[in-house]
Each structure stands twice: as C-alpha cells, then as structure tokens.
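ok, trying the design again with the full structure, not the truncated one.
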C-alpha cells in the first residue's frame, strides 16, 4: 500500500507554497521551477516530490521533458478545511459592515 503524505504538512513549507503559486499560472519543468529559487535543484526536486505524493501536482511527459501541473482536485482537502472559516469570517465582516453603515448614517 502506497502511503500518501499529509497535504497540510506539505503546504506548511513556504517553498512548496511558492511552487504551488508558480504552477497555478502555468506548467513548468523541474529546471524552470528551480530557476525561481536560490535552493539547489535537488532540494526543489524533493519539494516537487512531496507535492506530487500529496497529489497537489501531477506530471506530464512531453518528449524528453517532464512538466508539472497544479492538480486542483489535490487542493480539495485544503479547500474543504478552510471553507467553514471563510464562511465564518464573511459573516463577521458583513456584520461589521452593517454596524459601520449604521454608525455613519447616525453621524
């Protein structure tokens, strides 16, 4: 049985979050990803491997090159965890907006 890494541990690292941000824009080769960092290519490859194990990234072979893509479905666990907090804060900010509008109209 293949063990899958915890997605929350994977995104806890700032370099891996930066890689996710890069790949949200376009698919890149490992070399192109590494060019955006001061770390060694081996270090970046390890980060890519961790993200791929969490199914946040997937790879596509194009000729001799491997391109990494962001897997939106791999981000599902994160989105499902964050969603209740997003709703909570949206409600709070809407309430605050209402209070502020009432305050301004009374002035």
């Amino acid at each position: 049985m293949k063990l899958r890494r915890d997605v929350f541990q994977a995104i806890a690292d700032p370099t891996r979050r930066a890689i996710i941000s890069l790949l949200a824009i376009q698919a890149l080769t490992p070399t192109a990803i590494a060019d955006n960092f001061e770390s060694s290519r081996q270090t970046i490859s390890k980060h890519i491997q961790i993200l791929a194990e969490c199914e946040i990234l997937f790879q596509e072979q194009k000729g001799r090159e491997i391109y990494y893509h962001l897997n939106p479905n791999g981000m599902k666990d994160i989105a499902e965890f964050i969603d209740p907090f997003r709703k909570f804060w949206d409600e709070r900010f809407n309430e605050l907006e209402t209070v502020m509008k009432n305050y301004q109209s009374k002035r």
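Keeping the full-length input from now on. The first helix runs from residue 7 to 11.
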